[in-house]
Amino acid sequence: MATQIYVNIPVKDLDRSIQFFTALGFMFNPQFTNKNATCMIISEDIFAMLLTEPFFKTFTKKEICDSSKNIEAIMALSVDNKSKVDDIVDNAIKAGGTSPKDTQNDGWMYSRSFEDPDGHLWEIFYMDESDMPPQP
């Protein structure tokens, strides 16, 4: 069995988060969905568990980061082409997300970012390793 990753992300309003990520084309596993959490399917082995803040707090003694002021992580997702980068980020902005920085285009790598309604930073990128410059 392949190793799977489940990234746990606190959200203020679970229904709003589900609507937002549905607008970006993501699907959810109903088996792991209830009033406290949902399992967003990113790929066959990658999942984001969107947890209401009170439920998230049951897993840690630390305070939840105020993602409107601080960054706790950047979720970076690769896609198959530049057009897909634009589609996802454009849909994120239409669905209520924000774009915190300019598009980066290094020729061999193209990326754009968005913040979801809770302020979590997502980077969507396409990388053509065959065009990657040699490393020193």
Structure description:
- The chain is α/β, with parallel strands linked by helices and 136 residues long.
- The protein is built from 3 helices and 8 strands; from the N terminus they run E-H-E-E-E-H-E-H-E-E-E.
- It has a 4-stranded mixed beta sheet with strand order 1-4-3-2. A 4-stranded mixed beta sheet has the order 5-8-7-6, covered by helices on one side.
- Strand 6 and strand 7 form a beta hairpin.
- The mean pLDDT is 95.
Provide a quick synopsis of the model.
The chain is of the alpha/beta class and 136 residues long.
Secondary-structure blueprint:
Elements: E1 5-11, H1 14-23, E2 27-29, E3 37-43, E4 46-52, H2 53-56, E5 74-78, H3 82-94, E6 104-105, E7 109-115, E8 121-127
Please give the order of strands in the largest beta sheet.
Answer: 1-4-3-2
* Distance between the amino and carboxyl termini: 37 Å
CATH architecture group name: Roll
Average per-residue pLDDT, rounded, comes to: 95
Protein name: VOC family protein
Organism: Danxiaibacter flavus
Domain VOC: 3-127
Q: Which short descriptors sum up this protein?
A:
136 residues; alpha/beta; 2,3-Dihydroxybiphenyl 1,2-Dioxygenase, domain 1; 3 helices; 8 strands; globular
